[in-house]
Amino acid sequence: MKPTQQLHDLGQSIWLDNITRTMLDDGTEQRYIDDYSVTGQTSNPTIFDKAISGGDAYDEQIAELREKGLDGEELFFELALADVTRAARMFAEIHDQTDRMDGWVSLEVSPLLAYDTDATIQQAADLYRRAEKNNFIKIPGTPEGLPAIEESIHAGVPINVTLLMSTDQTMAAADAYMKGIERRIEDGLDPDVPSVLSLFISRWDVAVHDQVPDEMKNTLGVAVGKATYAAWREMLASDRWRGLAEQGARLQRLLFASTGTKDPEASDTLYIEAFAAPDTINTMPDKTLLAFADHGEVGDPLPEDGGDAEQVFQAHREAGIDTDALALRLQKEGAEAFSKSWRELLDTIKSESERLAA
Question: Does the annotation mark 138 as catalytic?
Answer without folding.
Answer: yes
